[in-house]
Amino acid sequence: MTVPDLLIDGPDDAPVTVVLAHGAGAPMDSDFMAAFADGLAARGLRCVRFEFPYMAERRVDGKKRPPNRAPALLDAWRAVIDHFGTDALVIGGKSMGGRMASLIARALEDEGTPVRGLVCLGYPFHPPGKPKKAAERLAHLLDIRTPTLILQGTRDTFGGMDHVPGLPLPGTVRVEWLVDGDHGFKPRKASGRTERENWDEALDRMAAFAMALA
Fold it and tell me: 20 to 30 Å CA-CA from 76: which of 38, 68, 89, 103?
């Protein structure tokens, strides 16, 4: 499999490499993805970003496309993981990118080559307004053994505090909340929080989680 183009930040000798995939609608160098890559690098971790095929094609011709079907997304993940190896590797990403990472992480367990950890930034537990459809996006997480951190905004329409705490997630999965955050962790002005504060808090938690797996 061909390895997608990579953006790499942080020291080459970092104790852990974190690979992050983008969400459905924005590329690997969006403000969100850049902030998390820069933030992890500043905290002593190496961060790798890549793009799924449909987004790489958009970069070439400027045409918007829907995400590839799951097999193509998972193949892209496989190529990147094979390139770096699973030792000292934490994988994850924003929304769809994190969901695909979680599917790969669960598959690698069965293959006997698990990654060190999994981090999901705004996990899409269900389509907005359709919590009854959570089952299909939850099944593989119910018995995952890979240490998992899910960072979630309290008012995320893809799974907020009104729904997620009641899900039967295993002890290997930790869900930590960002105050008044939406799907990108942005709070409302009335909350007294800023988007940057929520991003920095997420980065601190993410870095501590990854470093503990070193």
Answer: 38
| Distance of alpha carbon 19 from alpha carbon 157, whole angstroms | 25
If DSSP states are collapsed to H, E and C, what string results for 73-95? HHHHHHHHHHHHCCCCEEEEEEC
Q: Are 169 and 197 in contact (CB under 8 A)?
A: no
Q: What single DSSP character describes residue 184?
A: T
Tell me the one-letter amino acid at 5. Answer: D
Q: Is residue 101 part of a domain?
A: yes
Q: What are phi and psi of 130, to 5 degrees?
A: -130, 60
What global pTM score does this model have? Answer: 0.97
Q: Is 69 exposed, middle or buried (0-12, 13-18, 19+ CB in 10 A)?
A: exposed
- The reply to whether 1 falls in a domain is no
Distances (CA, A) of 39 to 45, 72, 143, 202: 9, 29, 31, 10
How far apart, in whole angstroms, are the C-alpha atoms of residue 85 and residue 106?
Answer: 16
Do strands 46-50 and 89-94 pair parallel, antiparallel, or not at all (unpaired)?
unpaired
Residue 15 in domain:
yes
Number of domains in the chain: 1
Q: Tell me the per-residue pLDDT of 90-138, one tens digit each, with 9 for 90 and over.
A: 999 999 999 999 999 999 999 999 999 999 999 999 999 898 888 889 9
For the chain, how many helices (H) and strands (E)?
Answer: 6, 7
